[in-house]
From TrEMBL:
<dbReference type="Pfam" id="PF00034">
    <property type="entry name" value="Cytochrom_C"/>
</dbReference>
<dbReference type="InterPro" id="IPR036909">
    <property type="entry name" value="Cyt_c-like_dom_sf"/>
</dbReference>
<dbReference type="GO" id="GO:0009055">
    <property type="term" value="F:electron transfer activity"/>
</dbReference>
<keyword id="KW-0408">Iron</keyword>
<feature type="domain" description="Cytochrome c">
    <location>
        <begin position="243"/>
        <end position="379"/>
    </location>
</feature>
<protein>
    <submittedName>
        <fullName>Cytochrome c</fullName>
    </submittedName>
</protein>
<dbReference type="GO" id="GO:0020037">
    <property type="term" value="F:heme binding"/>
</dbReference>
<keyword id="KW-0349">Heme</keyword>
<dbReference type="GO" id="GO:0046872">
    <property type="term" value="F:metal ion binding"/>
</dbReference>
<keyword id="KW-0479">Metal-binding</keyword>
<dbReference type="InterPro" id="IPR009056">
    <property type="entry name" value="Cyt_c-like_dom"/>
</dbReference>
<dbReference type="InterPro" id="IPR011030">
    <property type="entry name" value="Lipovitellin_superhlx_dom"/>
</dbReference>
<dbReference type="InterPro" id="IPR013427">
    <property type="entry name" value="Haem-bd_dom_put"/>
</dbReference>
Length: 388
């Protein structure tokens, strides 16, 4: 079923696969299934031909694409894409990048999308319904877009239609670039920045390596105060520190009050997500952000609703169940309240997280670092490991 190769290509193959030439360009270990020896020979040849135009031979192109799909992520695959920029591989490249967004290869894949002018593949995901993938796409654009990061992410930051968690992620990703910081600073000065974005903006600007930007930004922004009335250090700085696990476990209960809303190994209330394995889910930096800037990550299952009854009682909480007859919300004290549909005057989703926005004032920076140390240690137990 392999397409017939034109005679010219066959001649080239014979010449370039000749044993007098230096050793093979494909790794010796490249003997996995899926690929025919013929495809490998074509790729080997194409890699050797300095001025070969992939578009000049449909069969060679088909062989290269088969190779790319089977070996995407390898050095050879990236070399081939960099050289020939075949747009047909863009969807695979985007999927690979999203799957490996926290790895070198994933970032390289995304960089190639930008080099091919195919970054829209990532931008579309950043705006699509699946919020977890969208957040991954935004972070990936921030890591790979270089000179195009700001123009790619700015529309997300400024759009009133984009959800707050995505806007915060886009602002943070944009803030990794110096021109992104400049852009954010001018938005701050023009007071064009919604309040919900200010914590993220302060974190980006006050931790900038550019001293002038820090000075300028501190005229407009500050980080909130902690329990000892000291300003909170920026998240990147907090993430460099190490704390004490045992103290952190205590902070989780008191003074942090986290246990009022989160369960760890069966202990605590279930207003927010169970945190028994949170250390496997979030990076250290993301953990600080989850605690300090809850609207940066409103999880899908934990959206807050407001309900007003016809006798003027207001409830705020998580939606537990919703039937034709009644609505049940779980309040932030972990109490389930059920209201008959007939008695419901108003029922709507709130954009804000139910997690308090100012938890840093309950703790000192040291206690916060201890708390995160404790949470980072809450890992998924290794699957299949045999207890001895
Ligand atoms: C009043 C309830 C409440 C309190 C108090 C609270 N949280 Fe939360 N927390 C939530 C809710 C609800 C969520 C779900 C996401 C959202 O809506 O923001 C959440 C989300 C989180 C997440 C992200 C979880 C994930 O799966 O991504 C972390 C981490 C977290 N909280 C840690 C803490 C820590 C640490 C404290 C104490 C300092 C704390 N929370 C105090 C309600 C609370």
């Amino acid at each position: 079923m392999t397409p017939r190769l034109r005679p010219a290509i066959l001649i080239l193959l014979t010449i370039f696969a000749c044993p007098l030439l230096p050793g093979p360009l494909l790794p010796a270990a490249d003997d996995g299934g899926e690929l025919s020896p013929q495809d490998k020979l074509v790729v080997e040849t194409v890699l050797r031909l300095q001025s070969f135009q992939l578009e000049s031979s449909a069969p060679a192109k088909a062989a290269v694409l088969r190779y790319l799909r089977a070996r995407l992520g390898s050095k050879q695959s990236f070399d081939l894409i960099r050289r020939f920029k075949p747009v047909e591989i863009a969807p695979d490249l985007a999927a690979f990048g999203l799957e490996h967004a926290n790895e070198t290869e994933g970032v390289r894949a995304a960089e190639l999308l930008f080099a091919m002018g195919q970054q829209k593949r990532l931008l579309d995901v950043a705006e699509a319904d699946d919020s977890e993938r969208a957040m991954t796409a935004i972070a990936l654009i921030g890591r790979s877009g270089r000179g195009k990061t700001v123009e790619s992410l700015l529309p997300l930051v400024t759009s009133g239609e984009t959800s707050m968690d995505r806007r915060i992620a886009a602002l943070t990703a944009m803030g990794r670039q110096i021109d992104g910081q400049t852009q954010i600073l001018s938005m701050v000065k023009e007071t064009a920045l919604p309040d919900e974005l200010k914590f993220a903006a302060a974190n980006v600007l006050l931790a900038s390596p550019n001293a002038e930007a820090v000075e300028e930004a501190s005229k407009y922004l500050s980080l909130p105060e902690t329990a000892d009335s000291q300003p909170l250090p920026p998240v990147v700085e907090l993430a460099k520190r190490r704390g004490d696990v045992a103290t952190g476990a205590k902070v989780f209960r008191e003074p942090g009050t986290c246990i009022e809303c989160h369960k760890i190994h069966g202990e605590g209330k279930e207003v927010g997500p169970d945190l028994s394995e949170i250390g496997s889910k979030l990076s250290r930096e993301a953990m600080f952000v989850a605690i300090l800037d809850p609207s940066a990550a409103v999880s899908h299952n934990f959206e807050t609703y407001v309900l007003l009854t016809d006798d003027g009682t207001a409830f705020t909480g998580l939606l537990i169940s919703q039937t034709d007859a009644a609505i049940t919300l779980r309040t932030n004290e972990g109490i389930d309240r059920t209201v008959d549909r007939e008695a419901v005057e108003l029922f709507e989703k709130k954009s804000q997280s139910m997690m308090p926005q100012d938890l840093q004032r309950l703790m000192t920076a040291e206690q916060l670092v201890d708390l995160v140390e404790y949470l980072m240690g809450l890992q998924k137990s290794a699957e299949g490991s045999t207890a001895t």
